[in-house]
Amino acid sequence: MELHNNSTSFEISGASSRVQEKWNKPQRSRHKSVQFEEDLIHEEDPRLIYINDWRRTNDKYEFTGNGIRTSKYTLITFLPKNIFIQFHRVAYLYFLGIAALNQLPPLAVFGRTVSLFPLLFVLCVTAVKDGYEDWRRHRSDEVENNREALVLYAGQFQKKKWKKIQAGEVVKIYADETIPCDMVLLGTSDPSGIAYIQTMNLDGESNLKTRYARQETASMVLDVGAISGLIKCEQPNRNIYEFKANMEFNGQRFPLNQSNIILRGCQLKNTEWVIGVVVYAGQETKAMLNSAASPSKRSKLEIYMNRETLWLSFFLFIMCLAVAVGMGLWLERHKNQLDTLPYYRKRYFTTGRFNGKSYKYYGIYMETFFSFLSSIIVFQIMIPISLYITMELVRLGQSYFMIEDKHMYDSSSDTRFQCRSLNINEDLGQVRYVFSDKTGTLTENKMEFRRASVYGKNYGSFLIRADPLEENVHATTVEGRGQKLKSQIAIDNELMELLHKDLAGDERIAAHEFFLTLAACNTVIPIPTSSASCTESGLHEYVGAINYQGESPDEQALVAAASAYGYTLFERTSGHIVIDVNGEKLRLDLLGLHEFDSVRKRMSVVIRFPNDTVKVLVKGADSSMFSILAEDSGRNGHVRPATQSHLTEYSSQGLRTLVVAARDLTDEELSEWQCKYEDASTSLTDRSVKLRQTAAFIECKLNLLGATGIEDKLQDGVPEAIESLRQAGIKVWVLTGDKQETAISIGLSSKLLTTDMNQIIINGNSEDECRSLLADAKAKYFVKSLDCGSKYLKYKKDAEVTLDNTKSSTMPQQHSGKEEEMLSTSHALIIDGNSLVYILEKDLESELFDLATSCKVVLCCRVAPLQKAGIVDLIKSRTDDMTLAIGDGANDVSMIQMADVGVGICGQEGRQAVMASDFAMGQFRFLKRLLLVHGHWNYQRVGYLVLYNFYRNAVFVLMLFWYILSTAFSTTSALTDLSSVFYSLIYTSIPTIVVGILDKDLNDETLLQYPRLYGAGHRQESYNMRLFWITMIDTLWQSLVIFYIPVFIYSDSSIDIWSMGSLWTITVVILVNVHLAMDVQRWIFITHVAVWGSIIITYACLIAVDSIPIFPNYGTIYHLAKSPSYWLSIFLILTIALLPRFLFKVIRQNFWPSDIQIAREAEILGDQPDNLPSKSSKGSG
Fold first, then answer.
1. Are residues 732 and 644 in the same domain?
2. Catalytic residues
3. Is the pLDDT reported for residue 75 higher than 90?
4. What contacts 501, CB < 8 A, 6 or more positions away?
5. Which residues are annotated as a binding site?
6. Which residue of 311, 522, 768, 1014 lies most exposed, with the fewest beta carbons within 10 A?
7. What's 391-448 look like in SS3?
8. How many separate domains does the chain show?
9. What stretches pass through the bilayer (predicted)?
């Protein structure tokens, strides 16, 4: 990301104060963690900061201290808040009700205490996990708040804890220390008031930024007793790219801007010390205002589970109601025979002390009511609480295999994949939108100088990388120190030979000025580092290595390239620069600098040479440079067309291009420019506009020198990963704080953008202008407004919502003429953060949503951290599509937390993104494998796991239901209590877990070769309402078969009820395991052990239980096993119960096979499926 210090280059909030007013205008609250609601500084209500007088500053106690809190809970709120979050699972509420019912004496089917154990166990385990995570946040906050800084007190700087620092206090920071709060610089160790900071924790950039103390205060700061004054600044806001204030100091009043403030979280670099006054502290600092609260994420499939749980609850209610009504009618019919009929008694008939005494009989109506409640307890496993525990174990196992996947290990950084959240593994298989940062995520943030066009001649086609030991070692000796650049640059020998000729001739002079411009027209800081080396004579020679630090990697690459060709930037101060030109030091006076801004799209520097010649050196985008060149005569006549041709060639190669030009300034022009420059730079109103006008005065009639081509180094495999994601039906949006040109360039090099795409650019500076641009774009490209009447706008999951689709809800089905031509072309939306300030409101959000979702690619440039989150929320709140955000810096944290799935890159930008993410990896390319392979597997496994658990428990409950209907609607059971408990705990749990962790429908090579297979998750093929109802119908059939076939076979026998219960128990266990076996996609040894071993364990448990004399079912299994009817019953039940399912699968796979089934058959047979486009084919995306 390229950040500029001067307010003239502020691009996110625009070039005028109206943008800041709009940024801070109260806006609609869309999401509790994304609110673009700011308090603007009003002239009548500014924040007053009295320098070195915190008591007067905070006399009304309206300012917060500097303590921060990022934790979610306190000791008081932990229990209620955590329980509230956990009970978002509907099943938990259900089991809480069951446990409460079991506490009533008439309904105590199980032990009162025992009934609470399952729910309490799940709640406690989750609470311990959440408590531990929040304890770590508390500990981190405590460490942060108890750090110490030097604060001015009674004329001396004394140590003070960060949390006790107040607004108005003067703080001193030393090199490499972290800034504790937002501070206005008063002075630095540099006499000119310059300080260098690293903003990695704030905007994700590792390059050094320059900040300045006003000269009025810098000269007085050493006399700490004289530090006093008044700062009038804006109220706290989230805008990290602008600061507006005025300072009154020693009777003077002067403006302050972004270049005069250092923000919390930044680090002081290459500056011995700085002194500043606190203006914002604690939660009011810009860093904390841009920190969104960490949300609690739940998988979408789990949300759908709540819907199905409600259906199961409805079935349960109907079943219990049927039992209660049936019991009431039966009691009414036989009310005079209750002492002689089975199942019910009014009195005891026994020889003990209870003989003749009355039962607790409450009458027909109360008995009916109690029967309803007792049925709920008996049928309670209809809603499986064990499912949640099983899912946690399965997700844990899945995470282990993701972590151990050697294909997602980054050897360059020694980083392996991390699973930081176990709740959303299956969401990886349903992602529709990927929101990606650029710098450090798609790129390595490393630029390489590749091509140069100098005086109409093209260089760089054949670059030679010099020997690392000899490269860039210049023959200069300054006070006994050799200078060497800390980089390796490939050079063009022909160009190098030209630069070593005598300085004569137009081509040689143009080349000289070309590289002089590259070395001087920038804000790069040369940082010398010395190291001793031993020479052949045994003497120690000090060799100084120059390390370039700058706000833009482009500038660093250009300066490094200039150094490689003999023009080494050696020193930079606020008043001059020193360039080593082939061994000779050239000192140039720096008269003025017009930094890059999005309006001019260029940068210029005015320098004075030792011979008093004054030149303006300019570099910028070709779109803005060619219009300000001198007339096409003389030198520009033949250079211009050649340079334009070279630029076209560079752009086609995906290189970042800049045009370089210069001209001499006359004394009159210089004098007039200096007057305008001084007036513009001190203006309080329309400063940006005036500075642009001043720059335009000298940026004209330029002589074209040439152009450059820089390669923005992409991470390995990024273009291939993006292409595979697009073929999988996933839209990739890039949200970056970088310049628009940079984002477009990287979009081309990453194959996100293609040359045949129509680029829709939205750069508005007012609400009306943005509204007009959006409306014009929608009209031009025939985008229809979507129906947003409901909160969620659901798309057809088997189609992409893009303009080039033939069937989309965003456009008519038939088109003609120009409209048809437009719709056949792909479109890319490119929008800047300035426009988003106005658009992210209620009335314009829908317009942006319509346009953005109709484009294949969206690039958002110069966006603030919360704007990134706002874009994610734009999709998340209006569609039911799964969103994923990926980034590497602290500026990506809000976006990562807002998305359904957050992925952090373990890069060079700190660990803030990783700490806030759900998953973390070393390279962007691993996202392809994470989604297409592990995401597909996890979704397929968990989807089947949920349906199978619903089936497994429902078939057991329905079997009990048919038995109760056959026993006068009583809530008696033919199964022992141990059998009921062991059914979910031992008999059927292990196969479910094993299959959920290890089953694979396709191997990873097939899934990577055919990205389109990922669309199964978009279409919800593994879990949907249709599958749920089919499963329930199949469950109903199987339960009827299980119950009635043994009843039919043993109808004329004298078999006792415990023997029937034993038969039903073993049969249902075998049935559900064989059912599972029919659906296993890939058999391995452990799968066989789990499935068939469960049946063996069930038999072993039955034999053990039936061998205990005190149990009523003593010996039943021994008698049953001897009877042929027993084995016949099991065989018939399995055959008849599973036959419909078998026929359904056969017919479906033969006549209506899915893509997964086709690929699986081809995989087994070793063929290539003809109707599945591979990654080499044209993607759908």
1. no
2. 437
3. no
4. 508
5. 437-439, 555, 596, 619, 656, 736-738, 862, 868, 888, 891-892
6. 768
7. HHHHHHHHHHHHHCCHHHCECCCCECCEECCCCCHHHHHCEEEEEECCCCCCEEEEEE
8. 4
9. 310-331, 369-389, 950-969, 1027-1051, 1057-1076, 1083-1105, 1125-1144
